[in-house]
Predict the 3D structure of the following.
Amino acid sequence: MITHSQPYVRKDERRAMIAQAARELILENGYAALRTRDVAARVGINISTLHFHVPSKTALVALVAETTRDSFLAMLPPAPDPARPARVQLRAEAQAYRDSLRDRPELAACFMQLTQTSGIEPNVAAVLESFTRGWCQRYADILAIGQAQEVFRADLSPFPAAIAMTGALTAFGHRGSNGLEMFWPVFDEIERGFLAAPGKEESVR
Amino acid sequence: MITHSQPYVRKDERRAMIAQAARELILENGYAALRTRDVAARVGINISTLHFHVPSKTALVALVAETTRDSFLAMLPPAPDPARPARVQLRAEAQAYRDSLRDRPELAACFMQLTQTSGIEPNVAAVLESFTRGWCQRYADILAIGQAQEVFRADLSPFPAAIAMTGALTAFGHRGSNGLEMFWPVFDEIERGFLAAPGKEESVR
DNA sequence: TTCAAAATCAATCATATGATTGATTCATGA
DNA sequence: TCATGAATCAATCATATGATTGATTTTGAA
C-alpha cells in the first residue's frame, strides 16, 4: 500500500492543498478536464477524503475561485497613494502582475478558465468579477493620480484607459500566449500613450 | 413521434448546422459543459447521426475551431492598404470586430474558450493561434501605414502597440464582460495614445 | 490511558457520456 | 420503377465520473 506523504492533516491545510492541486491541474489540462479523482490523486488522498473536506465539485470550484482571488490580492503592491509618483506606482502594479505570471502561473490560468463557468456558477462569477473590477479600479486610481501630478495627459479618461491596460496585460495570462518577452514592450507602449506631452514645466519623476 | 425539423440534409450543410449548435452551446454553458448529445439535440438529430457526420468529439471541436476562424475571416474589412487613411482603416478594423461581438457573439466566445484547450488539442491551438497572429498583424500593418502618413507617433512600435490594441479589445469577447458600452471609449483612449502630437511643428529636437 | 471527534480509506452506487451496431427511411440516377 | 448509396434512428455498450456508505486509523483533550 502507498504510504501517504501527508497523513492526517488539519482541515484548513488540507483544503489549501486541494485547492492548489486543482489549480495546477487546471493550468496543465484546462478546466474542462478537471476531475475530482485527479485532484485527490495529486494531493495523495482518497476520493472520499476529498469529499470529506470539500463536499462537492461545485464547492471545489468555488474554493479554487476564492483562494485564487486571495492569492492574487496577497501579491498586489500597496494601494494607490496620491503622495507617491504615479509612474512608479503604475509600473509596480504591472510588475506585481508580471511576477505572478512568472511565479504563480496557475493563478492567472485559473482566473481565465473559471470564466467558463460564469453562465452556470453565479457565485464564482461574482468572485472573479469583483476582483477584476477592483484590479481595474487600482489602475484607474493611479492614472487619475498621475493626471493630478501632470504626468499623464489631461485628456486621459482614467477608466477606459485602465480597461485598456488591464485588458492588454490580461492577454499574457492565456495559456497559448507566446511567453512573457513582449510584456514590458506592450506595457511601455501603452504607458507612452498615456504620458503628457513633454516640454512644459513638467517634472518627470 | 417527433417530426424532424430538418430531415435528410446534405453532409456539408449538416456539418455546418452541427458546428453552429456547438458554438451556441459553448456560448451558453461554456466549453467544459459541451456534450455531443446536447449538440445533437439542438440540431434535432440522433446522436448516431451526429457521429455519422462528425466521427468524434475531437473532430467536432476541430470543426468548431475551423468554422469559427472562417466566419471571423469573412467579417474582416479589406486588407491594410498604404493608400488609404490609417485612422479610417484602424476604426474599420475595430468596427468589424465590434459588429461580430454584436451579431455573432458565439464566435468570440468560442475563440476564447477553445484557446484554453491549447495544451491538449494542438491542432485546434494551431488554427486559433494562426488567426490571432494574422489579426494582430493587420493592426500592426495599419499602425505602420499610419506612421508613414505621419498620423501616428514616429516612436510608436507597431507590433507591441498592436498586441495592446487587440488584447484590450479581446477582453470584450468574454462572457462576463459588462457589455459593449465601453468598447469605443476604450478604443478611442488607446488610439489617442497612438496619435502624433497635433499639427504644431512638434519636431523640436 | 481512554475515548470521542477528526481524518482517512476501500468498496460501491447511480448516472453521464462518448461511441458503436444494425436496421430503416429517403433521394436520385438509370 | 427500382436499385443503390446517403442519411437517419433506436438500442446498446464500455467506461468515466461525481458521490455515498460504513469501517478504520489517528489525534488530542480529559
Notes: Residues 64-194 of chain A form a domain with the Tetracycline Repressor; domain 2 fold (CATH 1.10.357). Confidence is low (pLDDT under 50) at residues 1-5, 200-205 of chain A. Residues 4, 7-11, 14, 45-49, 52-53 of chain A lie near DNA strand C (CB under 10 Å from a C1'). Chain A is about 65% helix and 0% strand.
